[in-house]
Amino acid sequence: MLAILKRELSAYFNSIIGYIFIAVIYLFGGLFFWVTSIYSGNADLGGVFANIMMIVELIIPILTMRMISEDFKLKTDQALLTAPIRPISIALGKYFSAVIVYLMGISVTLAYAVVVSFFTTPDWITVLGSYIGILTMGMALISIGMFISSLTESQIVAAAVTYAVSIFIILMDGILGFFKKSFLYNFLSYLSFSKHYKNFTLGIVNMENIVFFLTICVFFIFLTSYMLEKRKWN
C-alpha cells in the first residue's frame, strides 16, 4: 500500500493537478477569509468554513478523476492487478494519496486562525470542529470520486459524473422541500452532507456526524476494491 501511496502522491505533483487543486483552495479560502473576517472585523471563522465547503465539493473531481480511470486507459492496471498486492491495498494507497493532497489544501484554514489570534482570541472549539468537519467531509467526497473513477476509462467522464454528484449534494437540502413528511424526506435528510457539516462549523463535534462521513468513506473504498477485484478476474 505504501508503494502505491508514494507513486500516486508523486503523480499528483509530476502533473499540474496537485498544484491546481491546492491553488484553488488557497485562492477561494483567502477570499472568504478576507471578506468574512478581515474586512468585516469578525473573529468568527465559521463563515469561512461554511463557504469553503462548496468550493471543496466542486473541486474534488479534479483530484479524483484520474485515480483509477488513468490506469485503465494506460493499461497500467494490468501490472497493478497481477502484482502480489490485494485490490483493497491498491484502493487504500490511491485513496490516502488523494487525502494527503487534500490535507495540504485545507491546512491553510489553520493559518487563518493564527492570523485572527494576533488581534483577538478565536473560538478554538469552532475552529477545531470546523477543521474536523471539512476534513471528514472531504474524505467522504474523495471516496465517492474514487469509486466513480473506477467505473470508466475516461477521466472526463469520471470528472463529469463526480461533478453531477457534487451538485446533487449541494442542492439536496433544496430538494428536500418536495418530500416533506415522507420516508424519502427522512432518508435524504439523513444523507444531507450540509446538515452533518453545519454542526461542525458551529463548534459542535458530534460523533454521529463523524461516523456518518467515515461510513461513507469505508463503503465507497470497499466498492472501489470490489470493482478492482472484478476487473482483475475479468
Q: Return Rg in Å.
A: 19 Å
Low-confidence stretches: none
- End-to-end CA span: 23 Å
Give the tally of structural domains.
1
How would the global form be characterised?
A: globular
**Biggest beta sheet summary:** none
- Tally of alpha and pi helices: 12
Helix-strand sequence: HHHHHHHHHHHH
- The percent range for helix content is over 70%
Estimate what percentage of residues fall within beta strands: under 5%
Query: Structural class, from secondary structure content?
Result: mainly alpha
Mean pLDDT: 84
Q: What is the number of beta strands?
A: 0
Précis, in short:
With 234 residues, this protein is mainly alpha-helical.
Structure notes:
- The structure is a single chain.
- By secondary structure, this protein is mostly helical.
- It has one domain (2-233).
- Helix content is 80%, strand content 0%.
- It is built from twelve helices and no strands.
- Helix 2 (17-38) packs parallel to helix 6 and helix 6 packs across helix 8 (124-149).
- The longest helix has 27 residues, at 207-233.
- It is globular.
Characteristic terms for this protein:
mainly alpha, single chain, 234 residues
Write the layout of secondary structure elements.
Layout: H1 2-14, H2 17-38, H3 46-64, H4 69-74, H5 77-82, H6 87-106, H7 108-117, H8 124-149, H9 155-175, H10 183-191, H11 193-201, H12 207-233
Helix pairs in contact: 1-6, 2-3, 2-6, 2-7, 3-8, 3-9, 3-11, 6-8, 6-12, 8-9, 8-11, 8-12, 11-12
